[in-house]
Amino acid sequence: MTKSTQTTLKSVVLRFAGDSGDGMQLTGERFTSVSAVFGNDLSTFPDFPAEIRAPAGTLNGVSSFQVQISDHDITTAGDTPDVLIAMNPAGLRANMSILENGATIIVNVDAFDERSLTKAGYSENPLSDGSLGKYTVYEVPMTTITTEVCKEAGVKPRDAERSKNFFALGLVSWLYSRPTESTVAWIESRFAKVELVKQANLRAYRAGYDFGETAELFDARYEIAKADFAPGEYTNVTGNTALAWGLIAAGQLSELPLFLGSYPITPASDILHELSKRKEFGVRTFQAEDEIAGVASALGASYGGALGITTTSGPGLDLKSEAMGLAVSLELPLIVVDVQRAGPSTGIPTKVEQTDLLTAMYGRHGESPIPVIAAITPSDCFNVAIEAARIAVTYRTPVIVLSDAYLANGTEPWAIPDVADLPKFSPNFATGPNHEKADGTPEFWPYLRDPETNARPWAPPGMAGLEHRVGGLEKGDGHGNVAYDGLNHERMTNLRAQKVAGIAASIPALEVDDPTGDGEVLVLGWGGTYGSIAAGVIRARARGRKVAHAQLRHLNPMPSNIADVLKKYPNVLVPELNLGQLSKMIRAEFLVDAKSLSKVQGMPFRASEIEAGIDAILGGAL
Amino acid sequence: MSTVEVPITTRKDWTSDQEVRWCPGCGDYSILAAMQALMPDLGINRESTVFVSGIGCAARFPYYMNTYGVHTIHGRAPAIATGLAMSRPDLNVFVITGDGDSLSIGGNHLIHALRRNVNITILLFNNQIYGLTKGQFSPTSEQGKVTKSSPLGSLDKPFDPVSLAIGAEASFVARTHDMDRAHMQETFRRAHEHKGSSLVEVYQNCNVFNDGTFEGITSKENRGSMLINLRHGAPVIFGAEQEFGVFRNADGSVFTDRISDTNRSTIITHDENVEDPASAFAIARLTHSNQEPTPMGVFRDVNRTEFGAATTAQIASAQALKGTGDLASLLRSNGSWTI
Asked: Which run of H or of E encompasses B203?
């Protein structure tokens, strides 16, 4: 046995790539999990096609999982992989454009036969034609060894071949000095029901680990020290899971039953899945016949005194707009979660974009103001769900939550909050008449507003004496009966707008990260670009740039101090995964010459792209 | 059924203070009056009663009932009512809709509410015309209908709402008409008492845009010969002298014929409770126009699990198995580590 040298790294970016059926997501998640428990900081970026099983071996079928692990605080999954693990030629070819010189490539050499090379579009074998000269390439016969070690356990070669991802996991676990116990335990429990599969995966995993140790292929083995986390209890969570948990928490904090009306759509379906399996929390989930019924049933549940929620992605948001307008008119709580994906139309369903901001803000007929908030990291989805519920319940209004495909599937370590510290809020249901008729008899006026919040009373059916009728027709101010009078309509339109604008009084000020206090440029982002922008800003600062960063979570209304923040900086750069939607709003609302930095490639910003944007605006090139 | 004591009420208690704004002479008035007068007899509370509607003339109905009410958006009332009825099993939820609302723009929600068997009572006012938009043909208008949007005659083949509902395997399907208050009230009462989704088609005259369309079957003079009154357990016979009967073909379809000594014993007996919707469907297919003898009454009334109750049962069994959910444990369900 050779003793490899042990090298310590500050961080490493790994990318697992293979066929959609190769188990790359599972492999990546497992590696992430072990690293999280080990104590590294990390950030993940699953990147997969919309097709469940695209033609095997083709570029379209490549599924990748990128993870960065480090010994310090990081905010993204890394710009470019240090190590690419390619299970087949397509996995290699699809990722060549993002590899930088000197990167390490580990390939399953068994998959580089003529047929697979052709499917991936190679006319020559890249392993032998010299085209990979700029990289360090390790050719590992993963399929052969996996099949071999599984044979002894009685696993047929065809079945054994499917365990090769565990070989890759074992090999990388060795290379980066990951503890093995937890993965072994995980395999044993996950595959407990099928003994042969369990055996195959365990053997493949061990074989991969042992291969690293004995094959004398790798001249170095790496360590990444634990990151310096604040003491506490941590878990690893995706944005979709955090969002579902936040909604459950919101139900408990407000003591309202949760009702989710939803129609399956990528990449939002996991929220429906998560809530559907949490029935012990009293969550009622309803898989509706379409997107419209999803939101309509949620609004019906809210009318009945539940916290109505609907979850969707862009195309579904379009379909829900009429019912959201009704919710504006009825002034009832409703949460609409939009996990944004690349559009228009079906677009690229599994890829990230932030292109629904203006739809969320303005995409309904009539003057139809709706509060909009966006999560900035996967774990922030938990907080945003609670905040959306607080606003919806307190102000009797629909609220749109914007997440995105990157946050939905990405993970990061999350310091589990103490349940007792979470903010409680009350529905304050109407309990009796609130007005007197001319003759002094008490009556109930459904549109008499709370002087502080402008919210109307919420009076679900069941309370005698509060029977009332509401609807989508314009209502008379106060009494709420149908009213066609123009002046009343104008008053009601203004009241609805004022109510939403007034929410600003209850939201925190926009925090600005400006270490020197005299930044030459403010980088203003919103939602899921937080990690990329933070990483880009750090890089620019390292080169002496004075850069401030602020990330908006509340898009409507915005924090009260935003005008002051904007006016403080001579330059404002707005990076967005769209063609400049927030920058349009900022320019229109505040008459600030905000410059847009846009990207719509279905991928998050790289830190280097943010850094280049900062250079460009300060160099006068934007 | 609730065991809450229900106070004695009169029609006036169920009538809101809002001015009714349908056209004078509209069939909706008689349906509203029948409903308001029936409510005191249903043994339910005003505060536990909700009328939900979509868009159209019929959809104004909730404003006139002194109960809880919500006038929503076009076609979506069954979906909104589904969310309400699922989360509030204690409520009596009525959906008021029209032929355009429920069969055109809202057709999808109607069939899905029916197949799921949500506990809602759907009253479908069918006037075979678009009234509120001033007289275009509707999905129940007869083929060839000349309207502003079909000057050369409509090309669409109409839906028969009863056939559609039975096709969706609704557990309760009935038909009544606006000229017979007692029949409406008896049908509405049965629909309300049914557990699960019930659909009642109400033939309703639009005296402005489609006046007299049901005259040939529902007028006092024609009723006796043209209406086939369905009665559970009774032979299906009709006619001024009860001289006609309904018979079954070998292929399962049914037909009408004059009763004779030879065929008398083969007249079909109406059975609302047949599980297989085929027999009710066959009766629904007896008529294809307003000029033919038309069945009235309850076509189908079968017991099926109510959807909202089933969702409640799933929650209860999850809680029995896992205990009431604990948030702190949920946040640790992916595994956790301490630093």
From this structure: strand B198-203
- Residue A446 CA to residue A436 CA, distance in Å, equals 13
Structure tokens at A203: 């053997």
Q: Which residues of chain A lie closer than 8 angstroms to B7, CB-CB?
A: none
Is residue A342 a contact partner of residue A604, using CB atoms and an 8 Å limit? no
Q: For chain A, how are helix, strand and coil distributed in percent, rounded to 5? A: 40, 20, 40
Long-range CB pairs of B252-258, under 8 A, 24+ apart, other chains included = B252/B278, B252/B279, B252/B282, B253/B282, B253/B285, B254/B282, B254/B283, B254/B285, B254/B286, B255/B286, B256/B228, B256/B286, B256/B293
Contact list, B71 vs chain A (CB under 8 Å): 469-473
**Can you tell me the distance from the alpha carbon of A83 to that of A95, in angstroms, rounded to the nearest whole number?**
11
Q: Which residue from A33, A231, A416 is facing B332, i.e. has the nearest CB? A: A416
- Chain B residues touching A297 at Cβ < 8 A: 79-80, 82-83, 86
Q: Do A248 and B325 make contact, defined as CB atoms within 8 angstroms?
A: yes
A chain contacts of residue B55, beta-carbon cutoff 8 Å? 472
- B54 Cα to chain A: minimum distance (Å): 9
The DSSP secondary structure of B113-173, one letter per residue, reads HHHHT-S-EEEEEE-SSBTTTTSB--TTSPTT--BTTBTT---PPPP-HHHHHHHTT-SEE
B69 touching A, CB under 8 A? yes
Q: Do residue B325 and residue A281 have CB atoms under 8 angstroms apart? A: yes
**Per-residue confidence (pLDDT) for residue B1, from 0 to 100:** 44
Interface of B with A in 76-105 (CB under 8 A): 76, 79-88, 90-91
B84 closest CB neighbour out of A248, A300, A416:
A300
Concatenated DSSP letters of A514-552: -TTS--SEEEEEEGGGHHHHHHHHHHHHHTT--EEEEEE
The helix (H) or strand (E) run that includes residue A404 is: strand A398-404
Predicted confidence (pLDDT) at residue B91 exceeds the cutoff of 90: yes
Q: Residue B12: pLDDT above 50?
A: yes
Residue A343 one-letter amino acid: G
Q: Which two tokens stand for residue A242?
A: 């955090």
A382 touches A337 (CB < 8 A)? no
Overall average pLDDT of the A509-519 stretch: 97
Q: In A278-404, which ranges are continuous DSSP H helix?
A: 291-303, 314-330, 357-362, 380-395
For residue A418, what are the contacts with CB-CB under 8 A and spacing of at least 6?
none
The answer to whether A42 faces chain B, any CB pair under 8 Å, is no
Can you say whether the dihedral through the CA atoms of B157, B160, B165, B169 is positive or negative?
Answer: negative
φ, ψ of residue A471 to 5 degrees: the values are -175, -175
Give yes or no for a contact between A342 and A352, defined as CB atoms under 8 angstroms apart. yes
Q: Establish if A438 touches chain B: CB-CB under 8 angstroms.
A: no
The predicted-structure confidence for B268-316, as pLDDT tens digits, reads as follows 999 999 999 999 999 999 999 999 999 999 999 999 999 999 999 999 9
Query: Does residue B46 sit at the A interface (CB-CB below 8 Å)?
Result: yes
Q: What pLDDT shows up at residue A331?
A: 98
Q: What is the DSSP letter of A594?
A: P
Burial A7-41 (b: 16+ CB within 10 A, else e): eeeebbbbbbbbbbebbbbebbbbbbbbbbbbbbb
* Cis amide prior to A344 (ω within 30 degrees): yes
Task: Choose the closest CB to B327 out of A33, A252, A303.
Answer: A252
- Residue B4 confidence (pLDDT): 62
Instruction: Tell me the two tokens of residue A6.
Output: 């042990």
pLDDT of amino acid A219: 80
Which two three-digit tokens encode residue B320?
């029995």
Peptide bond into A557 cis (omega under 30): yes
| Spatial distance between the Cα atoms of B89 and B66, rounded to a whole number of angstroms | 20
Q: Which residues of A172-210 are buried (b: 16+ CB within 10 A; e: fewer)?
A: bbbbbebeeebbeebbeeebeeeeebbbbbbbbbbbbbe
